[in-house]
Amino acid sequence: MKLTLRIWRQASPEAKGKMQKYVLDDVEPDMSFLEMLDVLNEKLVIDGKDPVSFDHDCREGICGSCGMVINGNAHGPQQYTTTCQLHMRHFDDGDTIDIEPWRAKAFPVVKDLVVDRSALDEIIKSGGYISVNTGSAPEAHAIPVDKVSADDAFDAATCIGCGACVAACPNGSSMLFTAAKVTHLGLLPQGQPERQTRAINMLARQDELDFGGCTNVGACHEVCPKGIPLASIAQLNHDVLGATLTGARSD
Amino acid sequence: MSELQQEPTAVQGEGRYVLGDPIADTRAPDSPIADRWSDRKFSARLVNPANRRKMSVIVVGTGLAGAAAAATLGEAGYHVKSFCYQDSPRRAHSIAAQGGINAAKNYRYDGDSIHRLFYDTVKGGDFRSRESNVHRLAEVSLNIIDQCVAQGVPFAREYSGLLDTRSFGGTQVSRTFYARGQTGQQLLLGAYQALERQVHAGTVEVHPRTEMLDLIVVDGKARGIVTRNLFTGQLDTHLADVVILCSGGYGNVYYLSTNAKGSNVTAAWRAHKRGALFANPCYTQIHPTCIPVSGEYQSKLTLMSESLRNDGRVWVPKERGDDRDPNDIPEDERDYYLERQYPAFGNLVPRDIASRAAKNMCDAEHGVGPSGLGVYLDFKDAIARLGRPAVEAKYGNLFEMYERITGDDPYETPMRIYPAIHYTMGGLWVDYDLRSTIPGLFVGGEANFSDHGANRLGASALMQGLSDGYFVLPTTVADYLADAPFDEVPEDHPAVQEAVESTRARIDKLLSANGHRTVDSFHRELGQLVWDQCGMARSKEGLEKALDRIPSLREEFWRDVKIVGTGDGFNQSLEKAGRVADFMELAELMCIDALHREESCGGHFRVESQTEDGEAQRDDENFAYVAAWEYAGDNQRPVLHKEDLEFSYVHPTQRSYK
């Protein structure tokens, strides 16, 4: 099939970007979206033109590297699907497709479709863990976890850190990302001692970075390729409120 | 390695390599096998906590082994620098492991034990691994599960609240712990969080989007690395008292593999060229259940969990070239060839056997799908027996993934599958302490060769990565650092300058070729060649053909590659080109290794060495050794050093799954 692509090209973080038009004549329905871009890039290189930069790695929907805004939707039209798992059979011959990077203040553009998401690591660094040193763990069966909590914790833990939630949020907030980690660890018995301090520390760090505030729009959940439940945000707010009431402190 | 015997050997591959001295010592204690690790831990020297912060450690790679090692050494108080090419340490390819992690907990009371896990792993590796290392792996497996649970890894649980396990990969006990189909993700996030905790504590510095391009060796010791900042293109040097490589496997030499697109051999290969021996490069693992190639543009292959073979039945049409819709092919015209050939294990034979059988069927023109390179994995009988809801509960997410990629619904039409490269058992040679042959250079995880012999069992890669990272390296690296800090290396030391200059020259050379072919087109050609001649079946004739072609392909690459842009900034084509250049060199060593090993074992199948009924035929008399290769210079024949394998606890037998 024949497609017209309009792709955001930006040479460097400081450069001014713009949408650039490309026509591809020989796109096959079984190609993945990234393979379609590979084909474009091969042509560009042969013509001596700079290929389109985009992040990708595992190409099986789990590493969280890829992500672009496709026709206005983070990761494109198919629900619960990362860009790398999206296939061209979901488009029609003659379509025009707009491809842009994640747009968020906290994610500055590095080049073309590549953005800097290191702010997400900063949030985890501020408390997204259970403080246990290697070798100090008790026997695994000494900590039973009821199955419902274990399953709910797992649902929150499936976050791949792609940043689509931030890109989709009108406020550029990372609330769903932060809440997913707070929920995962806060539902487990191992996570209880740090539950409240974890929530306030991670939220405080998120606010210091360039993320916006959460106004419960829910766009984050809509675009999340892993379907992280919106209720995670309620869990985060619950833990933050708890921390406020008990005066929990981290030091 | 000292004096070489210069006369060429009389075996196959004659003239393609030189035989060197055997490897005498692997540093394993010689106590009874169950005591060796305790003995080594006790004999390992300790470092005073007050001195640790004065000692610096470089860890390359942030997968299970790298992240676990960096976090643990950080906890101990060393000054750690961690590097990854991805934009975050959380994205290392360990994240994509699906199935699970083995541990000899015996929670099922089904007869499991450390000794049984040890035994199964040595046997599964087709008697080509080192007993001491494998036993330690089995021992440490218990601690890994404890550690991960304490970190909050959400393993599958039963209603009692206790951990669930399942059986995996042809073993007779249920010892595989799992987190749905995303065990690797959950374990890696556990290690990543432990790492970020140390970043917060100030013991670890993480350098994402930073690729190691050379190893710095000063006075015979590994003392640092040369890196390229992938954002800015800047070359930097990082110096330390010890360097640990946990940079993963080299499956992408085949171009199409289940590895991440960025997975590469560069860190390990650069270390090899600086003097570290590379062991058993021809031991590569092919996973039988991957989604077949759909076209020329294919960029990678996707694995479908091995667990599907518990309920799916593998078949091909009995008639050659039968291109009817599979649902129109009647039962008596189908060949359930695994059930026919291996009645005892049926569809659950180990990976190497299932892969080879699929290849044989396709070679005999019974393959299905547009390319003829595929076999059916059919759930019709399972759906009839268990009902669709039960099948959905077990495999729903995998069926969805299959449909997303192929557009076919596996509830209605049988899946099409074909084998793909998945894991590499070979890697840098290490001793019992995971020391390479360069003092101060340690190697962990898939990047080393140590624990899986010629074939890795399912759910053992995660176990090895975390064993090396959390438990082995922190002990053995401390023993090495007991002599540190070493003499300070100034930035203008000739060895440092030489490493930077040669790295810069290489980049300039790649950029200046300005030829006619893209990096990917060379990579595809190399991959196809290696897949055809050094893939699922290898022959003397095919390997020699590959060895004749690789040097000329490499020459064409350096002369005719086209890279747009400069080295001063973000340039993904340049990154790829450097990696492909190293794969071009590795491919040659792989083929030499495969040619010299005139036996079949595990993933290495030489067509000249098979039993009457077509199974792999080992030759223990002549090949019960690790082949560790020394780099002797560009266009020089590599030097083979043999480490003899001794089996004192598990007696080698012919594997049979009939």
Could you outline the blueprint of secondary structure elements for this entry?
The complex is a heterodimer of chains A (251) and B (658).
Chain A: E1 3-9, E2 18-24, H1 33-46, E3 69-70, E4 73-74, E5 96-100, E6 109-111, E7 114-115, H2 118-125, H3 147-157, H4 164-168, H5 175-186, H6 195-208, H7 219-223, H8 231-246
Parallel strand pairs in A: 1-5
Antiparallel strand pairs in A: 1-2, 3-4, 3-5, 6-7
Chain B: E1 18-19, H1 36-43, H2 49-52, E2 56-60, H3 64-76, E3 79-83, E4 101-102, H4 114-124, H5 131-151, E5 176-177, H6 183-201, E6 204-207, E7 210-218, E8 221-229, E9 235-239, E10 242-245, H7 266-273, E11 278-279, E12 284-290, E13 313-317, E14 334-335, H8 337-341, H9 351-363, E15 375-378, H10 380-386, H11 388-406, E16 415-424, E17 427-428, E18 441-443, H12 461-481, H13 494-513, H14 519-534, H15 540-560, H16 572-596, H17 620-623, E19 625-630, E20 639-644
Parallel strand pairs in B: 1-20, 2-3, 2-10, 3-6, 10-18
Antiparallel strand pairs in B: 4-5, 7-8, 8-9, 11-17, 11-19, 12-16, 13-14, 13-15, 15-16, 19-20
Helix pairs in contact in B: 3-6, 3-12, 4-5, 5-12, 10-11, 14-15, 14-16, 15-16
